[in-house]
Design brief:
With 433 residues, the protein is mostly helical. Helix content is 70%, strand content 0%. The protein has one domain: Na+/H+ antiporter like fold.
Length: 433
């Protein structure tokens, strides 16, 4: 009685189909990184293409349009980014200092504001966006992505403080911090859009609240949570509370949500707090093997969330996300990837550690991704932006270009750079390795 009649097909429930697709996606997430490890192709490219195929086939999948579901888009991307920030903070071996992080500070203080200003100017002058929408586009596209840039970031945690080359370190640390530091500019765009309706002054409140207060709370909260958890994990007076001895990886998620939630409740930038908290945990006992456990668990959760979001992005593309894209907006997006980011980052690195070739590679691999969609979803949920569909289409176009271009180039470029560094390394440096 449970078998279908000959010539008929069983009715497929949407929930069952989604379970099957998610299972296939999770399985591929475990297989593809190893299959593609030394090939000029990245996992994001594959899942983006898979998402386009799945949503193009009439399977009855739900609508993947982020403009129709801004809150869902906001929270899905939010979780993915904060988990990625925890993983990035845990895997950096180099201790935090002004001199050793010189490349990072230059990219954050010089390259990112220049990129925001340049993209905002192009969006307003060339693409025809209103100033608030143009600033939102610049702020959303300026941060590099901790989620989709795994191929050009540092690897797993090690015991050696100076094991990381300058390229991978700079790209990882930049992605860890610039997601939080771009938020003031997103708030500026929201304030501008609101002021266009209310005609109220916003600059003073923005500086005091959205820049000074929120950044300060984010930094302080991240330090407090990171140091407190580091002490609990490794140096609690009661040995049963030294959680590092139990090697439970899910505590990476606990630390992520705790840092993010507490700081957001306190009125600070949670993105900033999560990365700083991760650095605090790592510095509590730098060589402990528990960092590997935490990092691996965070990376696995991040990979699963990334698969889901890339499939949905592919679905959004075939559903018409790019339809409002204009030629001027597309050219502005290409200018960001090809000219603005490379030039601003390269010039900001003059005098920084590393040689000229490394500076060019750092400048080129400004990968855009999931964080961009979080900022757009957040901003469009809090204010009305004229031509919001054009902003979304432009951002999606830039992410697609970045995923394709940087995904194909990452493996061969990083391999060439590693060979160049090996040839130019002095005998003393080779012996010390």
């Amino acid at each position: 009685m449970f078998l279908p009649v000959r010539g008929q097909f069983p009715v497929v429930q949407l929930s069952d189909l989604l379970f099957a697709l998610l299972g296939v996606g999770a399985l591929l997430a475990g297989i593809l990184p190893r299959v593609l490890e030394r090939r000029p192709l990245s996992m994001p490219i594959v899942f983006l293409a898979l998402g386009m195929v799945l949503f193009a086939v009439p399977l009855g999948l739900p609508d993947a349009d982020p403009l129709a579901h801004p809150k869902l888009t906001e929270h899905l991307t939010e979780v993915c980014v904060i988990v990625a920030l925890m993983g990035a903070g845990l895997k950096i071996d180099r201790p935090l200092s002004r001199r050793r992080w010189a490349s990072t500070w230059r990219l954050l203080v010089i390259a990112m504001p220049v990129t925001i200003a340049a993209v905002a100017l192009l969006g307003w002058w060339w693409a025809g966006l209103v100033p608030a929408a143009a600033l939102l586009l610049g702020a959303a596209l300026a941060p590099t992505d901790p989620v989709l840039a795994a191929d050009v970031q540092v690897g797993e945690p090690t015991d050696e403080e100076d094991s990381e080359d300058e390229v991978r370190f700079a790209l990882t640390s930049e992605a860890g911090l610039n997601d939080g530091l771009a938020f003031p500019f997103v708030y500026a765009a929201i304030a501008m859009a609101t002021a266009a309706v209310t005609h109220e002054s916003w600059l003073g409140d923005w500086v005091l609240s959205d820049v000074l207060h929120k950044v300060g709370v984010g930094v302080a909260g991240g330090l407090i949570v990171g140091r407190s958890l580091g002490r609990l994990f490794f140096r609690a007076r009661n040995k049963t509370l030294r959680l590092a001895h139990h090697s439970e990886g899910f505590l990476a998620v606990a630390a992520t949500f705790l840092a993010y939630g507490l700081v957001e409740v306190a009125g600070g930038y949670g993105f900033l707090a999560v990365f700083i908290a991760a650095r605090g945990i790592r510095s509590a006992q730098r060589s402990h093997e528990y960092h590997q456990v935490l990092h691996d668990f965070a990376e696995q959760i991040e990979r699963l969330l990334t698969v889901l979001l890339l499939l949905l992005l592919g679905g959004a593309v075939v559903s018409g996300l790019l339809a409002p894209l204009t030629w001027p907006a597309a050219l502005a997006g290409l200018a960001l990837v090809m000219v603005v980011r490379p030039l601003s980052a390269f010039l900001s690195l003059r005098g920084a550690p590393g040689h000229r070739a490394e500076h060019w590679v750092i400048a080129w691999f400004g990968v855009r991704g999931i964080g961009t969609f979080y900022y757009l979803a957040y901003a469009t949920s809090h204010a009305q932006f004229p031509h919001a569909d054009v902003v979304w289409a432009t951002a999606a176009f830039v992410v697609l270009v970045s995923v394709g271009l940087h995904g194909v180039a990452a493996t061969p470029v990083m391999r060439l750079l590693d060979r160049y560094n090996e040839r130019t390394r002095t005998p003393e440096e080779k012996y010390s390795q």
